[in-house]
Design goal:
The protein is α+β, with helices and mostly antiparallel strands. It is built from 4 helices and 7 strands. It is globular and about 40 Å long.
């Protein structure tokens, strides 16, 4: 299993054949085993080097690893895998079905995740994004994340670097390190 995964976003045009979901029709809930076929379909569509069923199973069996999905019309249209750490939540894998991108579903899921933060415990969200994944970088920046460092040769499948991006709630006054300047 690749322990490091990028977040999938594309800047391409969406093609929705069914009526576009409204956020009122989106239900975010814990991931269950029955969701895996749809999650794997989204994963294969989103990533050049997708996780396998075994990768998800191994990750989700860990005590601190949690999966959630967004459902629309009884279909899974997005998923997120994250880890609970002492001082942060760490997003490992996050993707939205291509036909449902740019509809606010990813933002809705991030809001649900950020609602789990607490100043005295887990006070930030961290994730890595491939240096070539500009759409994901822009999405997370628009969602309040900031690149805080470059992780050289981060991925096992390529020699590509990643940006460590972090989100702190507005109530916290956190300055972004200048490690990216140059």
């Amino acid at each position: 299993m690749s322990t490091h995964h990028e977040i999938s976003m594309t800047a391409g045009e969406r093609t929705v054949t069914a009526p576009s979901p409204t956020l009122a029709g989106i239900h975010v809930r814990w991931m269950i085993r029955r969701d895996m076929p749809e999650v794997l379909t989204i994963e294969r569509e989103a990533f050049e080097f997708p996780w396998l069923d075994e990768d998800f199973t191994r990750c989700l069996r860990q005590r601190n690893c949690i999966g959630m999905v967004a459902e629309y019309a009884d279909s899974v249209v997005a998923f997120m895998i994250y880890e609970l750490h002492r001082s942060r939540l760490h997003v490992l894998n996050f993707a939205v079905l291509r036909s449902h991108r740019r509809l606010g579903i990813g933002t809705h899921m991030l809001r649900k995740l950020s609602a789990k933060l607490a100043p005295e415990r887990r006070n930030r969200i961290a994730l890595e994004v491939r240096e070539t994944n500009l759409a994901a970088q822009l999405f997370f920046r628009a969602s309040g994340f900031r690149a805080t460092s470059v992780l050289k040769d981060f991925y096992q499948d390529t020699t590509e670097d990643a940006y460590l991006m972090e989100f702190w709630p507005e109530s916290q006054d956190v300055s972004v390190p200048r490690r990216l300047a140059g």
